[in-house]
TrEMBL record:
InterPro entries: SLAC1/Mae1/Ssu1/TehA, Sulfite_efflux_TDT, Voltage-dep_anion_channel_sf. This is Sulfite efflux pump SSU1. It comes from the Eukaryota. One of its GO terms (cellular component) is plasma membrane. The chain crosses the membrane at residues 26-48, 68-92, 98-123, 135-158, 164-191, 203-225, 245-270, 282-302, 308-333. One of its GO terms (molecular function) is sulfite transmembrane transporter activity. The keyword Nucleotide-binding does not apply.
Amino acid sequence: MGTGIVSILLHSLSTLYPGHHGSLNVLSIVFFILNVILFSLIFIVSALRYLIYPATWKLMINHPVQSLFLGTLPMGFATIINMFTLVCVPRWGGASPYIAWGMWWIDAAVSVACCFGLPFQMMTKHKNRHDTMTAAWLLPIVASVVAAASGAVVASVLPNPRHALITIITSYVIWGTGVPLALVVMAIYFHRLAVYKLPPHEVIVSVFLPLGPMGQGGYGIMELGKVALKIFPETETLHPAAGEIMYVLGFGVAIVMWGFGLVWLFFALASILSRQKFPFNMGWWGFTFPIGVFAMATITLGQELPSSFFRILGTVFGSCVMLLWFVVAAGTVKEMARGRMIEAPCLRELERASQRGAEKGRQEA
C-alpha cells in the first residue's frame, strides 16, 4: 500500500508539474514495478503459508488484530489497478481497459467481503476491549473506500458508456458501505482516546490511520463526480443535470471530509510529538498510505478549484510521504536483515499457550 501510493503520487505530480513530467513519470513507473513485485511476492508467500499449513488460517482469522490486516490485501491490489489504468491502458489500448475492469471487480468483491465479514467476525468471534482498541479497526472498512475510488479511475477509461455507468453506480454503493461505517468506528476510537488516552508506544503510529477514509473518501467522491459529469448525460441517466449535481455534490462532500481529516492529522502529529521515542516495527508503514491518500485528496482539490494553495500543500504532503517511504523502507531492510521484523502474532500467542501448558504439565507431574 505504501509503495503503491508513492507511485500514484508521483504520477499525479508529473501531470501537476509538466516541466518535470519525464523524470517524475519514470519514477512513478519504477515504483509501480516495485509495487507489483512486492505485492506478488507477499501474496504468493502468504498463499503458500495457508495452503501448506491450513491451521494457521483459522488462527489468523480468529486473532482480534492480525485478522484486520486482511483489508490491506485489496487496498494494495487497488494501487496496482490504478497505476495499470493510468499508465498501461493509454499506452497499450486494445483490451487493456477491460483487463483493468476485470481486476477491479475482483478487488471490489474482496473489499466488500472484508468490509462486511471482518467487522461481523469482531462482533461474534473476537474478544475486544475498548481500552486496547486501535485505529486498525478501520483497515477492513477502508478497503471499500479505496475500491470505490479505484472504480472511478477505471470507469474513466472504459470505452462503453454503459459499462462505465455500471461501474460508477457500483462504486457509489461501495463508497456508501465504507465511509459511514468508518465514521462510526472513528467516533468509537475518539471516545477510546479521550477515556484511555493515547495508544502504547508500539502502536502509536496507528493514530494516522483515520486519515485514510477521510483522504481516500474525499478523493473517491470527487473522482466519481468527475466521471459522472461525463457519463450521466451520455447515458441519459436520471436528469440532464444529474452529472453536474453529482460533480458539485462530490466536491462539497470532499472538502468537508478534508477538513475533518485535518483534525485527525493534528491529533496524529501531536500524538507522535508527545512520545519522545517509539520502537521501529512494521506498523511504521502506517505512516505512508494514510498521509498519501490525504495528499491525493489535497492535490485533487487544488486541481478542481483551481487553487495554488491546495496544489502546493498537496505537493508538500506528497514529498513527506516519499521521504517517509525511504526512511521506513531502510528501517525495514535493516530489521529484516537482523531477523526481527516479520512475525505472526497468532503463532506467537499459540507458542506461549503451548509453553504455559507444558509448564503446567511439569508442575502437575
